[in-house]
Design brief:
The chain has 2 helices and no strands. It is mainly α.
């Protein structure tokens, strides 16, 4: 059914329709890759923050007392 719709669109509007769908598909892939990298970076930052908090003395801040 989707193939029939695609063929109908190409027949009515020309081959540029395929280009539009291809570009939309590639844009989706790029967005998914970007999201995966951001998720990985966020998890790394959370791990670093956890390690820093574990190593800081309780109740102590930098420059206090």
């Amino acid at each position: 059914m989707a193939g029939d719709l695609l063929l109908k669109l190409v027949a009515e509007h020309g081959p540029w329709v395929l280009l539009v769908f291809y570009l939309l598909y590639r844009d989706l892939q790029k967005d998914q890759a970007t999201r995966a990298v951001l998720d990985k970076n966020s998890s790394i930052l959370i791990e670093i923050t956890t390690i820093i908090r574990e190593r800081l003395p309780a109740g102590g801040g930098v420059g206090r007392g």
